[in-house]
Fold:
Amino acid sequence: MLDLGEVLDPFRKKVIDIKDALAGARYLYDGIDLILESVDDPKVRGASQEVFSSASEKMNAIDAMLDEFYRQLSSTDRVLETYKANLKP
Structure:
């Protein structure tokens, strides 16, 4: 019988890799935001704040979707492990 945990593990690893990349993007985002705070032009500062606010919301939404996907993968693995355990005599 196919071990679904082995099938799901690469997907879980990919989710973790994507979350790490997202954290790196967030770090760069924060750096650019700090740099733009020192811009004298209030229109540029205001526009950049709107862009960064929107980007932050989208990054948070992606992060939440990844968390949910990881939970679903783990839950599926646990359900199938329980199923396999119940099949054994």
